[in-house]
Amino acid sequence: MKKVCALAFAAILALGAGLASAADPAVRTVAAVHQEMAALSGSQVQVSGKVVKVNNGIMGRNFVHVRDGSGEQGTNNLIVTSKDTAVVGDEVVVTGRVQLDRDFGSGYLYPLLIEDATIAKQ
Predict the structure, then answer these.
(1) pTM of the complete model
(2) CA 26, CA 118: separation in Å to the nearest integer?
(3) CA terminus-to-terminus distance, the chain
(4) Class of residue 36 by CB neighbours under 10 A (exposed 0-12, middle 13-18, buried 19+)
(5) What is the rounded CA–CA span in Å between residue 27 and residue 43?
(6) How far apart are CA 114 and CA 34, in angstroms?
(7) Tens digits of per-residue pLDDT, 59-99?
(8) Closest CA relative to residue 45, chosen from 27, 58, 63
Protein backbone atom coordinates (compact mmCIF):
# COMPACT_ATOMS: atom_id res chain seq x y z
CA MET A 1 0.00 0.00 0.00
CA LYS A 2 2.82 2.42 0.86
CA LYS A 3 4.44 1.71 -2.50
CA VAL A 4 1.18 2.47 -4.36
CA CYS A 5 0.74 5.74 -2.43
CA ALA A 6 4.35 6.72 -3.12
CA LEU A 7 3.93 6.05 -6.85
CA ALA A 8 0.67 8.02 -6.95
CA PHE A 9 2.31 10.94 -5.12
CA ALA A 10 5.28 10.89 -7.55
CA ALA A 11 2.87 10.91 -10.51
CA ILE A 12 0.99 13.90 -9.10
CA LEU A 13 4.26 15.80 -8.59
CA ALA A 14 5.37 15.00 -12.13
CA LEU A 15 2.03 16.19 -13.52
CA GLY A 16 2.29 19.44 -11.56
CA ALA A 17 5.84 20.03 -12.83
CA GLY A 18 4.67 19.53 -16.40
CA LEU A 19 1.84 22.01 -15.95
CA ALA A 20 4.18 24.65 -14.52
CA SER A 21 6.53 24.42 -17.47
CA ALA A 22 3.65 24.55 -19.95
CA ALA A 23 2.79 28.02 -18.63
CA ASP A 24 6.35 29.31 -19.10
CA PRO A 25 7.03 31.33 -22.26
CA ALA A 26 8.66 29.41 -25.07
CA VAL A 27 12.37 30.08 -25.57
CA ARG A 28 13.00 30.93 -29.22
CA THR A 29 15.67 32.39 -31.47
CA VAL A 30 15.13 35.74 -33.15
CA ALA A 31 14.77 33.99 -36.52
CA ALA A 32 12.23 31.49 -35.08
CA VAL A 33 10.05 34.31 -33.77
CA HIS A 34 10.04 35.82 -37.28
CA GLN A 35 9.30 32.44 -38.91
CA GLU A 36 6.53 31.54 -36.45
CA MET A 37 5.12 35.03 -35.85
CA ALA A 38 1.59 34.26 -37.10
CA ALA A 39 1.28 31.27 -34.76
CA LEU A 40 2.92 33.18 -31.89
CA SER A 41 0.73 36.29 -32.16
CA GLY A 42 -0.48 37.22 -28.68
CA SER A 43 1.75 34.63 -26.99
CA GLN A 44 4.52 35.21 -24.46
CA VAL A 45 7.98 34.36 -25.77
CA GLN A 46 11.47 34.52 -24.39
CA VAL A 47 14.57 35.35 -26.42
CA SER A 48 18.16 35.94 -25.38
CA GLY A 49 20.55 38.06 -27.38
CA LYS A 50 22.67 41.18 -27.64
CA VAL A 51 21.28 44.71 -27.59
CA VAL A 52 22.25 46.48 -30.83
CA LYS A 53 20.15 49.67 -30.63
CA VAL A 54 18.16 51.54 -27.96
CA ASN A 55 15.65 54.39 -28.22
CA ASN A 56 14.40 55.38 -24.77
CA GLY A 57 11.32 57.39 -23.81
CA ILE A 58 9.38 57.20 -27.07
CA MET A 59 5.60 57.17 -26.60
CA GLY A 60 6.04 56.22 -22.96
CA ARG A 61 8.19 53.17 -23.63
CA ASN A 62 11.70 52.12 -24.57
CA PHE A 63 12.44 50.49 -27.92
CA VAL A 64 15.28 47.96 -27.67
CA HIS A 65 16.63 46.02 -30.67
CA VAL A 66 17.95 42.52 -29.92
CA ARG A 67 19.91 40.11 -32.12
CA ASP A 68 21.19 36.62 -31.37
CA GLY A 69 23.07 35.78 -34.57
CA SER A 70 20.19 33.83 -36.10
CA GLY A 71 18.30 34.83 -39.21
CA GLU A 72 19.23 36.87 -42.24
CA GLN A 73 18.55 40.45 -43.29
CA GLY A 74 14.94 41.14 -42.31
CA THR A 75 14.69 38.27 -39.79
CA ASN A 76 17.76 38.85 -37.61
CA ASN A 77 16.45 41.69 -35.40
CA LEU A 78 13.65 41.87 -32.82
CA ILE A 79 12.26 45.17 -31.67
CA VAL A 80 11.15 45.06 -28.06
CA THR A 81 9.05 47.65 -26.22
CA SER A 82 9.45 47.83 -22.47
CA LYS A 83 9.51 50.02 -19.39
CA ASP A 84 12.92 48.38 -18.81
CA THR A 85 15.94 49.43 -20.82
CA ALA A 86 19.45 48.28 -21.61
CA VAL A 87 22.66 49.57 -23.13
CA VAL A 88 24.03 48.68 -26.57
CA GLY A 89 26.25 45.64 -26.10
CA ASP A 90 24.33 44.20 -23.13
CA GLU A 91 23.53 40.49 -23.27
CA VAL A 92 19.87 40.21 -22.24
CA VAL A 93 16.93 37.87 -21.86
CA VAL A 94 13.70 39.40 -23.13
CA THR A 95 10.27 38.07 -22.17
CA GLY A 96 7.21 39.64 -23.76
CA ARG A 97 4.09 39.30 -25.88
CA VAL A 98 4.28 38.91 -29.67
CA GLN A 99 2.31 41.67 -31.40
CA LEU A 100 1.78 41.80 -35.17
CA ASP A 101 1.09 44.83 -37.37
CA ARG A 102 1.35 47.33 -34.52
CA ASP A 103 0.51 50.81 -35.81
CA PHE A 104 1.40 53.71 -33.51
CA GLY A 105 0.39 56.26 -36.18
CA SER A 106 2.56 58.94 -37.77
CA GLY A 107 4.29 56.33 -39.93
CA TYR A 108 5.34 54.08 -37.03
CA LEU A 109 4.10 50.68 -38.27
CA TYR A 110 5.79 47.51 -37.03
CA PRO A 111 4.99 44.14 -38.62
CA LEU A 112 6.44 42.38 -35.53
CA LEU A 113 7.05 43.64 -31.99
CA ILE A 114 7.68 42.04 -28.63
CA GLU A 115 5.60 44.29 -26.35
CA ASP A 116 5.33 44.92 -22.63
CA ALA A 117 8.57 43.00 -22.19
CA THR A 118 10.87 42.51 -19.26
CA ILE A 119 14.55 42.86 -20.04
CA ALA A 120 16.99 41.07 -17.76
CA LYS A 121 20.75 41.39 -18.17
CA GLN A 122 22.66 38.12 -18.35
Answers:
(1) 0.79
(2) 14
(3) 48
(4) middle
(5) 12
(6) 11
(7) 999 999 999 999 999 999 999 999 999 999 999 999 999 99
(8) 27
